[in-house]
Amino acid sequence: MRKLIKKLLGFKYLLFIGLFYTIFITIAFLLPGSELPKVRFLNDKIVHIVLYIILSFIWLLYYFVSQKNQINLKSLIVILFVCLIYGIIIELIQQLLIASRQADMEDVFANTLGAVIGALMFWNVKNRIKT
């Protein structure tokens, strides 16, 4: 199990995971509203927060591992900014190109909150990550 985890923490695997996850949530956010599953026990904003916690954590982990277990505050802020811009672009595409979806500033706020929580979680565990 330890070897598997160490292998998954290789930067090539993390790049694949990051790209796959980003594509997955892009597709999910761009599906027509009628095709989205109805989740009765979860608020839409909670889903956005959780998805962006994972998104920012994966990309911060990728950067950290690819830089030989180094990251500084500036890099962390850049990755958070990219997550914010990504969320805004998704909302704009929903508004402009998908008839059954519309942009929602509360989604952008939830995405940003999730990315910040993911970054804080990463910052707290980064020193325990051994690659």
Structural features:
single chain, 131 residues, mainly alpha, 5 helices
Q: Please tell me the overall pLDDT.
A: 86
| Outline | elongated
Instruction: Output the radius of gyration.
Output: 16 Å
Number of domains: 1
Ends apart, CA distance between termini: 14 Å
Number of helices: 5
Q: What assembly state would you assign to the polypeptide chains in this entry?
A: single chain
User: Considering DSSP H and I runs of 4 or more, what fraction of the residues is helical?
Assistant: over 70%
Structure description:
By secondary structure, this protein is mainly α. It has one domain. Helices cover 73% and strands 0% of the residues. The longest helix has 25 residues, at 73-97. It is elongated, with a radius of gyration of 16 Å.
Element layout with pairings:
Blueprint: H1 2-8, H2 11-30, H3 44-66, H4 73-97, H5 105-125
Helix pairs in contact: 2-3, 3-4, 3-5, 4-5
